[in-house]
Amino acid sequence: xxxxxxxxxxxxxxxxxxxxxxxxxxxxxxxxxxxxxxxxxxxxxxxxxxxxxxxxxxxxxxxxxxxxxxxxxxxxxxxxxxxxxxxxxxxxxxxxxxxxxxxxxxxxxxxxxxxxxxxxxxxxxxxxxxxxxxxxxxxxxxxxxxxxxxxxxxxxxxxxxxxxxxxxxxxxxxxxxxxxxxxxxxxxxxxxxxxxxxxxxxxxxxxxxxxxxxxxxxxxxxxxxxxxxxxxxxxxxxxxxxxxxxxxxxxxxxxxxxxxxxxxxxxxxxxxxxxxxxxxxxxxxxxxxxxxxxxxx
Length: 297
Ligand SMILES: [Cu+2]
Description:
Layout: H1 5-11, H2 52-55, E1 62-63, E2 66-72, E3 81-89, E4 92-93, E5 106-111, E6 118-120, E7 123-125, E8 130-135, E9 141-152, E10 158-169, E11 185-188, E12 191-196, E13 206-212, E14 215-216, E15 229-234, E16 240-243, E17 261-264, E18 272-282, E19 285-295
Antiparallel strand pairs: 1-2, 2-3, 3-4, 3-8, 5-6, 5-9, 7-8, 9-10, 11-12, 12-13, 13-14, 13-17, 15-16, 15-18, 18-19
The structure holds copper (II) ion (CU).
Copper (II) ion binds next to loops.
Keywords: Signal
Protein name: Secreted protein
């Protein structure tokens, strides 16, 4: 297969962590980092279908020739520790990465009961290929660790991959079964969020609206080169979906503003109850709020 990185990214739409500008983080540079400032237009990707069998949904540690290996995570609740892992590809340990949403690696952690979500960005040791990041897991239980990155193929191209594995934090696990709010709604820090549209497998776009005191919020700031980051997990198998709104801040425009309505491309391939973790930024503060959705077949 001889696809350009851009074409590959375009195929993989909602997981679309492809190059959306804002490439100004110098802490984790790699040789291919510059490639990601190509600035694909998200709108170009609308209507494309993603190849989940190749990308993955975070439920498998191994997929399409890539493996998540040597995963070490804190095992004691509430104790500061470190998460480390390595990605192996067809040519051995992958040490060369390209950015998606300004980062070389996105990592999500969620407890089996869909609580205790964390979205963190490990740093790469380019000599060994090991990723590491400080991590404290406050509560005991089984967790799904999900890593999202661009796999470097033997052809020298980059393809989206989402690999995952379970980690366990010692202690008594008491699952929380209450929903955060009514389906399709959420509130955080004085902001009210609502998703309109029918969440459906291969369904239509959804609309996320953010209001405060009844007024639309149009002061959303770019966070990781997007007006919102939405990572969802399906209740039960914890399969992951990830989407960014079609409305994108202009690349490298730190003063860009967005909202109140954000369009979400179709992202679901399996029905069920999902908890979406929505992150957005206003006034320099990143807000995080869970929202449950029922996705029909
Ligand atoms: Cu991230």
